[in-house]
Specification:
Blueprint (H helix, E strand, L loop, with lengths): L1 H20 L5 H28 L1 H8 L11 E6 L10 H15 L6 E3 L8 H4 L6 E3 L5 E3 L2 H4 L22 E2 L16 H4 L7 E5 L2 E2 L2 E2 L9 E4 L7 E4 L28 E2 L7 E2 L5 E8 L6 E6 L5 E11 L4 E10 L9 E11 L4 E11 L17
Parallel strand pairs: 1-3, 12-18
Antiparallel strand pairs: 1-10, 2-10, 3-4, 5-6, 6-9, 7-8, 11-13, 13-16, 14-17, 15-16, 17-18
């Protein structure tokens, strides 16, 4: 009996060992298998990442075939400067030098000129009229050729700077119409781009309207501002028939859009109507501010005791995109002066951002004219 039991036990041990030996995985082998599976899983993932990230440019070509140029196309590159300048650019030569220096600082190569005209020389006469495309540094087409550049509409706004960063500005010095010529109703070029003082103006284009890129005629002519303000320049490469060297996006932080500087308010009234003995008096003093969101205030001093400053009002001119402010001067009663006299009326116009303009207006009071019929209205200065 004992012999049989022992045999059974032995048989059970053998069968157990055989079962273990047929096991497909041992503890050690399972570790290797996990490693192998992980490696196999990483291979297709790596390939997928390479295909996806390595062909973003190809995807961009597919999405924008009509406005994206290839790396071997011959083009004229364009950019907006990352730096803003006062109106004293050093003339057209100085403006071109600023464009060239900006291009050189980004290692772009090529010859560059500013899209700029003065009182005598047009941008059209200074630039090569190329038959090749004009493109931004990210490869997007601005215009197919010179005729397309100067027809009043761009394919894409010029809002990429020399480092390949987005650069929006509500003003860019130009003094140039869409066809590259001077303004047909008056040039404003900061005294041929040699002045940075108040009282001189420069015409501006823009590349942003609130949040919309500008591609219509406003890209080159939108408004004007004092030459003491700072704005960037458009820079255009003069075609050298070389393949375009694209720029990689800069690691530098994207500069904030150029903030609109405060434009000083301006008193536009230059003289006051005469006052006469026996007549009541009424006059208007007017001022303007190109910053339509500013709040203006006017003070008037030096009036004779029989006159006083009346009511004032501020009107927003949506057509000119500015604000008009006017105040009245009214009689306290009949003029009681018995002799002719000239008063010096001091006017100060200020805005809520520190802008200020002052002017002295002569007020002549006459005693030799008697009251007349209403067909001779009281002289006033019309707004």
């Amino acid at each position: 009996m004992s012999t049989k039991k022992t045999a059974r036990k032995s048989s059970k041990r053998v069968s157990t060992k055989k079962y273990k030996s047929k096991s497909p995985l041992s503890l050690a082998n399972s570790k290797y298998l996990v490693i192998i599976l992980m490696v196999c899983a990483l291979i297709p993932l790596t390939m997928i990442m390479q295909v996806f990230f390595g062909n973003i440019k190809s995807i961009a070509h597919t999405q924008l075939p009509e406005v994206f140029v290839g790396e071997n196309d011959k083009v004229n590159r364009v950019f907006i400067t990352s730096t803003s300048y006062y109106g004293d650019l050093g003339g057209l030569v100085g403006a071109d030098a600023k464009c060239q220096n900006s291009a050189d600082s980004a290692n772009l190569g090529g010859e560059w000129k500013a899209w700029l005209s003065d009182n005598n020389t047009t941008a059209s006469s200074r630039h090569i009229h190329s038959t090749d495309s004009y493109v931004r540094l990210d490869g997007l087409v601005v215009a197919n050729n010179w005729e397309d550049l100067t027809d009043g509409t761009l394919q894409n706004a010029i809002n990429i700077d020399e480092f390949g960063r987005n650069m929006n500005s509500w003003g860019i010095w130009t003094n140039t119409q869409i066809d590259g010529t001077l303004m047909n109703y008056g040039s404003a070029s900061c005294n041929n781009w040699e002045s940075a003082i108040d009282g001189t103006y420069g015409h501006l284009g823009c590349n942003i309207n609130i949040s919309t890129p500008v591609t219509d005629s406003y890209w080159t002519w939108n408004s004007s501002d004092y030459c003491s303000s700072t704005y960037p320049l458009y820079c255009i490469e003069q075609n050298n028939n070389q393949p375009i060297p694209m720029v990689e996006p800069s690691t530098k932080p994207t500069p904030k859009p150029t903030a609109k500087p405060n434009s000083k308010p301006k008193i536009t009234t230059n003289s006051l109507p005469w006052a006469y003995i026996g007549r009541t008096y009424n006059a208007i003093i007017e001022g303007t501010d190109t910053d339509s969101n500013d709040t203006l205030n006017m003070t008037i001093t030096g009036l004779p005791d029989f006159l006083s400053a009346g009511s004032c009002k501020q009107i927003k001119d949506s057509k000119k995109q500015n604000v008009v402010y006017n105040c009245s001067i009214v009689s306290n009663g009949a003029i009681r002066l018995t002799y002719t006299k000239t008063y010096q009326v001091n006017v100060t116009l200020t805005d809520n951002r520190g802008g200020k303009d002052t002017k002295t207006l002569p007020l002549r009071v006459y005693t030799s004219i008697k009251p007349v019929a209403t067909k001779y209205p009281v002289p006033t200065i019309r707004p």
